[in-house]
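Intended use. Records such as the rhomboid protease entry shown here are meant for training and evaluating sequence-to-structure methods. They are not intended to support clinical decisions.
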Amino acid sequence: MYGFDPGSTGYISTGKFRSLLESHSSKLDPHKKEVLLALADSHADGQICYQDFVNLMSNKRSNSFRQAILQGNRRLSSKALLEEKGLSLSQRLIRHVAYETLPREIDRKWYYDSYTCCPPPWFMITVTLLEARTRVALFLYNGVLLDQFVLQVTHPRYLKNSLVYHPQLRAQAWRYVTYIFMHAGIEHLGLNVVLQLLVGVPLEMVHGATRIGLVYVAGVVAGSLAVSVADMTAPVVGSSGGVYALVSAHLANIVMNWSGMKCQFKLLRMAVALICMSMEFGRAVWLRFHPSAYPPCPHPSFVAHLGGVAVGITLGVVVLRNYEQRLQDQSLWWIFVTMYTIFVLFAVFWNIFAYTLLDLKLPPPP
């Protein structure tokens, strides 16, 4: 690259950049070539930052690079990704995922060219399989060994395991996460599994297991901690905290980028998703205040849903709005991380001191 930047200034002239691009165009993905041309046309001063070029080719795009593309003087002239013909089944699937999750055409093309399915979306699939396996295994265990098939979440035998969060056992820190592997019934498990697969898997395909796993686990932990603060006498089961974090983040991202999102029937699908979530949340509220069949064991709390939504519309939205961007460069990211950290510390101290100070009458330990 020395011949293009003999003075080692860190910049390349757009003319030389175009010559370099044309001489190597046959080796580039067509959509990546469009981005490079847009980068060249976005600089009115006739120079391109060499680091921007390096970041582009290594899939590390900065905010300044994104702004250069979005505000460039040249519009991407080729047809939209949706209009391309002759794609294989896997290519159509990748294109569908891109239009389901990304609001900008340039990001959709970037994702389409860059996605290799390596690694596959293992996190959401693994969590879903573990949840289903645990629920079925516990049901069979109670039925075969204890001679009683137990579905009721308030049944003492259901609560007597090392996974469910119970206020009497709140010192066992793993329960703030492992409660996701237990559910309040087949319908509870079924809805969470469907949402995790339909929403979580495409999001993981685009944003990766690390980011989506972070949002999911943050929603799970926020859900159980929210219960320990706001509904102190109730146990918690189900993965609704993590599920609602992902779904609320996805829906909020669609609303905030309404004109750019090109997924089909988005208004109808949003309405269906909101209705399903509202019905499930309403069922959880009703169940919480319905008299227990096995007093004094209460029904599980619904507050975990709200904790998940809070994570989704804060941390989750920042993750989904910054595809291929460094989160640590986003001021909102640090604001929401700080808020989340403060909440976790507050909840920890609350669990240590508040239960004793308030002298609550807790349900008996399982």
